[in-house]
Amino acid sequence: MVLITLVSSDEQNFPVERELLKQSGTIETLIVNMNLDDEDTDAAAMPIPLPNVKGDVLEKVIQWMEHHKGDPVKEGDNEDNNAEIVVPQWDDDFFKPAMYGSKHLELTVAASYLDIKNLLTLSCKAISNTFKGKTGPQIREEWGVPNEFTPEEEEAIRKENEWSE
Amino acid sequence: KFRRLIMAIASRGRNETQMDKNQTSHTSLPTEILKTIIEYLDEIDRARLSSLNQQLRSIEKITGHRRFSTVELRQSYDAPTLEVRTRIQTHLAQEKSKSFGEDDTAKGFCEFFKEASTDVLKIKEFIHGEAVPQLHRVLSALKLNELNYGITDENVFKQMFVLIKTFKQIKSVRINWNVAYTNDLIAKPLILNLPPTDEYTFISQHSQMFIDNEVLMHMINSSRTITKIICPFIGVTRDGLERAFEKVYRGERERFIEFPVSIAEHRAFLSRAYSSQYFERRKNGIKHMKSGASLSVSVRFNGGGDIVTIRHPRIV
After folding, report:
1. Cβ–Cβ below 8 Å for B10 and A51
2. Which DSSP string do the residues of A53-114 spell out, in sequence order?
3. Exposed (0-12), middle (13-18) or buried (19+): which is B157, by Cβ within 10 Å?
4. Tally of domains in chain A
5. Min CA distance, A104 vs chain B (Å)?
6. What is the reported pTM?
7. Model confidence over A35-62: pLDDT tens digits?
8. Residues of B with Cβ-Cβ distance to A132 under 8 angstroms
9. In this prediction, does ipTM exceed 0.85?
10. Range of B51's domain?
């Protein structure tokens, strides 16, 4: 089994099975372009630094990839028509503990940076699910959105969106 | 040196993909991720979200991917404004109206409907003006199941024809024939050119005698499963009834066909069918014994011809 070492922004090393890394477009491109999986060269022993991902987040990403090992990897842009995407129970349980904190957001950003399309899709869908049916003030609180509108602007927007009340 | 090279490649896109380190709120997420999250929300949640602050408002506006149950377009002859009524089916149907004015008809409309999907697209009035090609480009990119088109004249029919040909996933077409005085010589060739789709429904408040046996058979051949003609009378005769029924009982495909017919014509058809060894007599019609296909006639008491219903046994 070929192992490739990923190094997080806080210098933690994570030896990861080569096969798992095929889920990440960013790492896969790097491995292929730099011949990092050619065991006959020195490059094979070279760790891959991921300066945008912290150790605890990278650990979660690897955990997610291990569970989804062998899943078909999405190619190109997401053309699914979003309404039909369902977050499987395992993923829902995986995201839940961190859902209302910054950890889940960091995991989502890491999925985007590492170009792990399935993780990004499910993670974004899980975030959007937490807002369904909530009122403006509830969303404002959960998203930590400051109110920048003047009372007049607020009234105009309220009128425009009256149908959604 | 090699490590520095890997580091440089791995750091690519750092600015676009990193959250603001001082913030942990959802609004500090990169715009592309916020757009993806917004795509998964329905119109009601999107409206609530966009009312929270200017950043979310602008991102929501450019996100596209809106999902509706019905989109209805109206435009009158004397006003360039395009009125759009959208409906979202939740536990209650919720409607939203939006007008695209003279200056921003095409631009505003294109932005609003970018990558949108809807179950039904209703076009109530003639769409005219310089923006038509652009509007059609946007409409033809819509993902939809049913096109519901109000036909007022030949030009509108041609617009509908172009749209049906362009839509790839369209399943059902409802033609609301609102032509004040139908010129049969113009109308018949138009209908005879209808392209194939799963379902065709033709609706008119007036009798349309140009729908004769030939037109009926074309509509049946153009629709893969359902053909419905809803109007007082059409010009179909006993011969048309025979051909329509034969199409169903000889075919393998699940089909449902419904249209009005005069008492004289369906009686002439039934009296001949009753004497045939291939059909079984039923209370209100007949059944083809080998295939199980049935034809039944129901009396319409409030005027107009009686309704003939032909169904393949496998149709749900």
Report:
1. yes
2. S-HHHHHHHHHHHHHTTTPPPP-SS--S-GGG----HHHHHHHGGGTTSHHHHHHHHHHHHT
3. buried
4. 1
5. 10
6. 0.72
7. 777 666 665 568 899 998 999 999 999 9
8. 41-42, 45
9. yes
10. 15-63
